[in-house]
Amino acid sequence: MESDLYLETDRLIIRNHRLDDWEDLYEYLSIPEIYRFEPGKPLTREEAKIINRQRCESDVFLVVELKQKQKMIGHLYTARLKPDVFMTWELGYIFHPLYQNRGYCSEAAAAYCRYAFTTLRAHKVTAFCNPLNAPSWKVLENIGMEREGHIRQKAFFRTDERGNPIWHDAYAYGILNPLHV
């Protein structure tokens, strides 16, 4: 892990994972509906412990904690894209269903973009989402990202009964560093 990250908003704390986060992580990554637009399958308690331990060693996944409850309510995925010289990061997120539609995701995503632009000196932050996932693309538009394209059959997370990929499209979003524009 490069450094300890700590961002604070009015209602949230965005930080690196700690070993004791596994139960909150399990609480939402064990819910089948979380995987409608995401790869993977609901986690067992043991899998949540292992994944959380791995995330403690990485800057790629960040905890989104509700200050008022001191509880992890979701996470951000933040990866620097190659080549490094392009100074571009990809942003993703998953939130517990009980904490969706309250503005937490937009608040966390906007805070991370500000951090990426001011501290990491990012030129651009990108994101991808399934066109059927309107709440996700509305978050991206709410934080100022622009839809840059519709990518047909970008990826698949599941296969049919015969093992054939079930492809899905993706919207591509991006926001440029306002200091560079």
From TrEMBL:
This is GNAT family acetyltransferase. Keywords: Transferase. It comes from Salinispira pacifica. PROSITE patterns: GNAT (PS51186). One of its GO terms (molecular function) is acyltransferase activity, transferring groups other than amino-acyl groups. InterPro entries: Acyl_CoA_acyltransferase (IPR016181), GNAT_dom (IPR000182), N-acetyltransferase (IPR051531). The lineage of its organism: Bacteria, Pseudomonadati, Spirochaetota, Spirochaetia, Spirochaetales. Residues 12-178 form the N-acetyltransferase domain. It comes from the Bacteria.
